[in-house]
Amino acid sequence: MTAPRAESRTVTAVAPGDGGRLDLVVATAADLSRTQAATLIATGQVSVDGRAEKAGYRPRAGEVVTITIPAPRGIEVIGETIPLDVVYEDDVMLVVNKPAGMVVHPAPGNWTGTLVNALVGRGGALSNSAGAERAGIVHRLDKETSGLLLVAKDDRAHRVLGAALARREVSRRYAALSWGHLREDRLTIEAPLARDPRDRRKVAVVAGGRHARTDITRLARFDAGDLLRCRLHTGRTHQIRVHLQSIGHPVLGDDTYGGGGGRRLTGLAPGRHALHAASLRVRHPVSGELMSFHCPLPPDLVAALRAVAGPYAPPVDEDPLAHFGFWGGEDDDLPTHATESSDDDAFEDADID
């Protein structure tokens, strides 16, 4: 099975003449975000009575706005029969528990075996606004990070969920094991992130980089490291991993950012690091209902936590995250109702290939 090839489409609208900007007229008429509308205007895909205008132009009443929406560029994705742990599914969205080791979407070096290949292979609708190679993908997780990930089945749901992420209205909390001991039980790391100027395959704290904030709560302190609950306020590439490295406490098992030595202690497989997207709270893109999803640690991280905890490990039949209080304290990050926004960083959680 292959992802369907989309075709370009044309939308025509008569300007209402209410003084609104052209980018807003285009966004409303074509059911796009303001960012998407502005991009179409800037690339010559929009005309007003046959002439080009800028995004800030205010069409007069009766002027005809013609919008050409190109087919998404991208590769043809081959559907594959790959088992997926679907935590939730309805007509417009899914929540998937992504395993460690799975790349989210096809890219050089990883054209098959990705989450998108698996989604296409299981059949059913997927949003296509970001191209076939990113079908359905609202945000991403690093290859070796496990846990909860949002998938949209249609373009409108994709846009609403992406806008909610951009406005910090989706709560994402990660469980992490870190080297050493934090100075305090609660801290906020607010440090700008960008490509590492010395190694373009990595991310670093860089003056002038994109704003990034991570709230961290220490749940337990063990001999060699801490169990942390990390809440993302932004979703920059490798954010938690780089922020923890920046304060001298990298994620255990993270070879890229200085925590690879923890593999001897945790028993984690090569390439796997101790980071798991365990909690997700989001407003449903259609009903607005607040939805909460929890995802316990996978077996390899349960074993890693028990190895690090030593005599303080919870009973074998008990959820380790529940034992250490991970699931509490969610009321302070309650997202508000999701509506559309022109700010969009929904694709920031990404591997650097």
Brief write-up:
Helix content is 18%, strand content 25%. It is α+β, with helices and mostly antiparallel strands and 353 residues long. The chain folds into three domains: 9-69, RNA-binding S4 domain (Structural Genomics Hypothetical 15.5 Kd Protein In mrcA-pckA Intergenic Region, Chain A, Roll), CATH 3.10.290.10; 85-166, Pseudouridine synthase (2-Layer Sandwich), CATH 3.30.2350.10; 171-333, Pseudouridine synthase.
Give a structural overview.
- The protein has 353 residues and is of the alpha+beta class.
- The protein has helices at 22-30, 34-42, 115-122, 155-166, 239-246, 263-266, 299-309, 320-323; strands at residues 9-14, 46-48, 64-69, 85-89, 93-98, 146-152, 171-179, 186-190, 193-196, 199-205, 213-221, 225-232, 275-283, 290-294.
- It has three domains: 9-69, Roll (Structural Genomics Hypothetical 15.5 Kd Protein In mrcA-pckA Intergenic Region, Chain A); 85-166, Pseudouridine synthase (2-Layer Sandwich); 171-333, Pseudouridine synthase (2-Layer Sandwich).
- The protein has eight helices and 14 strands.
- Strands 4, 5, 6, 7, 8, 11, 12, 13 and 14 form a nine-stranded mixed sheet that branches.
- α1 crosses α2.
- The longest helix has 12 residues, at 155-166.
Summarize the helices and strands and which ones pair or pack:
Layout: E1 9-14, H1 22-30, H2 34-42, E2 46-48, E3 64-69, E4 85-89, E5 93-98, H3 115-122, E6 146-152, H4 155-166, E7 171-179, E8 186-190, E9 193-196, E10 199-205, E11 213-221, E12 225-232, H5 239-246, H6 263-266, E13 275-283, E14 290-294, H7 299-309, H8 320-323
Parallel strand pairs: 6-13
Antiparallel strand pairs: 1-3, 2-3, 4-5, 5-6, 7-12, 7-13, 8-11, 9-10, 11-12, 13-14
Helix pairs in contact: 1-2
